[in-house]
Amino acid sequence: MARRSEPPDGGWGWMVVLSAFFQSALVFGVLRSFGVFFVEFVAAFEEQAARVSWIASIGIAVQQFGSPVGSALSTKFGPRPVVMAGGILAALGMLLASFATSLTHLYLSIGLLSGSGWALTFTPTLACLSRYFSRRRSLATGLALTGVGLSSFAFAPLFQWLLSHYAWRGALLLVSALSLHLVACGALLRPLFLTEDPAVGGPGAQLASLLHHGPFLRYTVALTLINTGFFIPYVHLVAHLQDLNWDPLPAAFLLSVAAISDLVGRVASGWLGDAVPGPVARLLMLWTTLTGVSLALFPVAQAPTALVALTVAYGFTSGALTPVAFSVLPELVGTGRIYCGLGLLQMVESIGGLLGAPLSGYLRDVTGNYTASFVVAGVFLLAGSGVLITLPHFFCFSAPTLKPQDLVTEALDTKVTLPKEGLGED
């Protein structure tokens, strides 16, 4: 285990970035492209589309709600064995799914088993990356998360080609082999011991302090609000365009335009997050506000040129807020608490992601169009921006750069009384 007084801001950290790049591709690239299997499952099991949709939904829910488990295990044993075990579970779930004879088998194999594997990989990897970087943290996170966008382009046609040549069972076997590369990604996560680590205690002590830490709780509320409206265009933009008499193919192509802008936004925001002085939360508030405004303007735009411009703006700003959202957390809780903090944050904010799309669909059913859906989605992001203003040092333009040991002191400004025996065990 490497021992450092503060994050090295490079060195082996770039290998961790490479690991996070492929890991984000193998988790979220697979999830985003899994709709290719949708039609095959409907035909093979002769089930309703709504029931088949639960396969991916269960997988996403398990991945997000299981994040604290992956974080706690990483705090106890380090990220390397946890992520490698998660890769084995993700591959095993896809392998067993290839032998499924009912939707229940797919719920259990892909939804529960692979979802559990994804829960053990994504959060520990990003948390490990945050511990390796300080001044370049936003750029490193932005580069790592570009794997999601690039793999979304590559995996959809790849999976379709596999289906046409090997049918869905053979395709799942090959996706299982692809997922097994998560084990190699986990092997690259060299544990890093920082001098602040002994001060933060074990998982129990960290969780207790986080639940009493006001800035962390407010940040969790902000990201939950942001998450509620964030994904609405990916779910309902094509349907909204078809209501405006667009053909399905150009409407779907507009999502690809958003994905390209998303990629550019992640890299640009990562660079700006490290170059612009002051708290990263200010940059996050800017991108969140612009994303909310672009969402609220979608119903107003009618001309194709205006819709394309709004889609580019939404893709860039929504992609730009992603890396800085992960970079704000270490500033609030310190790198010593990043595993537990990120896991707890992802579990709570997933509530917004799960409720956003059904709420948008409900508003469409009630009003007969997507005007209210996009406006309400924008309002959720603007509300999240308002909460971000309450974070510490937001309006302080001359605050000195905090060192890791200062972050620990600030993160523990609220003292929590714990039983001595429990602390000893941690």
TrEMBL record:
Membrane-protein topology: Multi-pass membrane protein
CDD domains associated with the record: MFS_MCT11_13 (cd17423)
A Gene Ontology term for the protein's cellular component: Golgi membrane
InterPro entries for the chain: MFS (IPR011701), MFS_dom (IPR020846), MFS_MCT_13 (IPR048233), MFS_trans_sf (IPR036259), Proton-linked_MCT (IPR050327)
Record-annotated membrane-spanning stretches: 12-31, 82-100, 106-127, 139-160, 166-189, 216-237, 249-268, 280-300, 306-326, 338-359, 371-395
Single GO molecular function: symporter activity
Keywords for the protein's UniProt record, in alphabetical order: Cell membrane, Golgi apparatus, Membrane, Symport, Transmembrane, Transmembrane helix, Transport
Highest taxon, organism lineage: Eukaryota
General function of this protein: Proton-linked monocarboxylate transporter. May catalyze the transport of monocarboxylates across the plasma membrane.
Protein name (database record): Monocarboxylate transporter 13
Native species: Equus asinus (Donkey)
Lineage of source species: Eukaryota, Metazoa, Chordata, Craniata, Vertebrata
